[in-house]
Here is the input.
Amino acid sequence: MHSLWNDAGAAACGSEIERRIYTSRLLGQDKSLVLHGGGNTSVKLTEQNILGEDEQILYVKGSGWDLETIAAAGFAPVRLEHLKKLAQLSELSDPEMVNQLVTHQTRATAPVPSVEAILHAILPYPYVDHTHADAIVSITNTADGEARIREIYGDTMVVIPYVMPGFDLARLCAARFAADAGPNTIGMVLLNHGIFTFGQSAKESYERMIAQVGRAEEYLKRNKAWDFAPAAVTAAHGIELASVQARLRADISKAAGFPVIVARHANDKSLAFASRTDISTIAQQGPATPDHVIRTKRLPLIGRDVAAYVEGYKKYFIEIEVQAKERKTMLDPAPRVVLDSELGLCAVGKSAQDAGIVADIYDHTMDIISRATALGGYRALPAKDIFDVEYWDLEQAKLRKGGKPLPFTGEVALVTGAASGIGKACVESLLARGAAVVALDLAASVVSMKSGANFLGLQCDLTDEAQFKQALVQAVEKFGGLDMLVLNAGIFPGGCRIDSLKTEEWQKVMRINLDANLMLMRECHAFMKLAPCGGRVVVIGSKNVPAPGPGAAAYSASKAALNQLARVAALEWGSDNIRINSLHPNAVFDTGLWTPEVLAARAKHYGMSVEEYKTNNVLKTEVTSRDVAELTAEMCGPLFAKTTGAWLPVDGGNDRVI
Here is the structure.
C-alpha cells in the first residue's frame, strides 16, 4: 500500500465535497481496494436549508457510482438526524429502508444512496471510507480469520462478524461500536466483507485506510502468503482451441437463454491457477465477498461440462430457496467464470464490458484464494449467505439499471474493409446495436479506430490465409465466437476495357474480391454454425452485378461471382441455421475513393453539378455509407430472420437495375 495523497492536488479542492471526491478517487484508483462500483465513502456536513435552518447532511456514495470516477453528482445528500433515528428501529425492511433514504434526500436528482448509508451515519466521524481490500479479505476468509485480524490490529479495529449489508448490519455495527470502540479505535473490519476507516479529515481517513490495509499486507508477507510467482506456462493458441472456446460459448449461451461473450485469459497466472491439483477444492468454496456473486455466480465452472454445472446450480437454488422469507424466481443457471487447464480463465458476460468486469473480479479472487490457502485454507461464507445476496432485490437492481439490452447484445460481428467508407459505417451501426465488433483492414489505422471493451481492430491482409486465421483466433479469444460476418473488403481498379485488361490485373481483382471472401466464408463457417441466434452473412456487392458497365470487367465479374457464391452458400448453410444475403450499393460517394476532385471531374464529364451527380437516381436522393451500413445491420436482425439468398439494391433506384 502506498498513499497517493498529494498536497498540491488536495490544495486545489475548495470544499469538503471536493476533498471527499479527491480521496474517493484515490481509493478507486487502487484495484486491490475496490472494483467496479465496490466500496463507498461519505462525509458529514452542516448546510442551511431553504428556510435558513442548519441541517446535518450525510453525503454518501450513490448506488452504481464508481469511486475511481465519482463526481459531486455521485454523492447522495441525506438528512443525518433521520438516518440516526432509523438506526434505533428494531427492524426495517429493505424496500422501506430504500424509501426512507430516497425520501429524505435534499436533492431530488441525486442517485439512490448506498445501502450502507445508515451504517455511515451512526459512525461519529466526519469522514468514513469503506473498501473490500484484497489483503483484508484474504485474511478474514480463513478458518481462524477473526483471531488473525485481532492479532494484527488489537484495539485499533472493532471486529464485526458477517451480516448481510443493509439495516441489520448497521444496527449490529452500532451496537458493537458502542461496546468495543475505545480511544485507539480508527476503524472496523467486517469479516468476509471488508474494512472501514474514519477520521476528522479526508486525508486522515484515507491515509488510515492505506496504513491499515498495509498492515494486513505485511502480515501476509511475514506468513509467506503474499507473492506467488506463477510458473511460466506455454499457452496454446490456434483454430482448434478457438473451436473449443466457441463450443463452450454455445453451451453457456444455451444454458443462459441468451447469447453471451466468453473472453479467454490465458496468461501465466490464470493457466497456473486453473491447472492446480487442488482447484476443485479451493475454487468451489464461494466468492471472496458476497457482493461479487451478482457478477460471478457463487462458483466457477471447472472444466467444460456446462450441463453438469447447470444441474448443480439448480440444486443449489432449490435447496436454499425454500428457506427464503419470500419466494424467488431462479436466475439463469449459466456459469460466469470458467477455469480450464487448457483455456485458462474464461470470463462470461452479457456484453464484453460485463465479461471484463467478471475477469477483473476473478483475477483478484485468484490472489485472495491463493493467499488464504497459504495461510491454512480458504473458506468462504456458507452458500445460504451467498444466496441471500445473489437474490437480494437491492443487488439485482444494480444489474437492472442498464434497462432493456440492445438487440445484438452478447453477439459478435466481423467486418472486413472496416477502416473507411461502408466498412467503417458498418462497424458503427453494429456497435450501436450492442454487438462486439472485430474490424479487419489492410490499413493500420483500423487498430485504433474505436475504443472500448466491445471493439477489436486488427490489421490484416485478407489474401494471406495464415494472417486471417490468426486474426480469427484473436477474435474468438477476445469474444468467444462469431455470429455475423460482413464481407465488405474489395478493390475497384481504374477503368479498363477487356481488350486492354492484363492477366495480372484480372487475377489481382479476383484474388481480393472473390478468392479472399471464399476463404473467409470457409474458415468462419464452423464458428457461425455455433452462433446462439444463428449465423448471418451480409455481402456488400455492387450495382455492377445486375447492371455492369463498360471498363469494369474484372470488378463486375468478381462481384457477380461473389454474389453467386453467396447464393450457393445460402443453399448449403441453411441447415446450419446460417443465412446469407447481399446488398448492391451504387454511387456511395462518402468513401476514400471519391475525393472532391474526382467527384467534380466525374460530374463535369456528365455535364452535371456535383449535387446533381450525387443524386442521379430515380428517387433523386444521395446514398451514404451509413445508409448501406444501417441496412446491413438490419439484415442481421430479426426483420430479415426468414430471408436468405436475397439481394437488395441500395442505390436510390437505378434505371438499368430496375
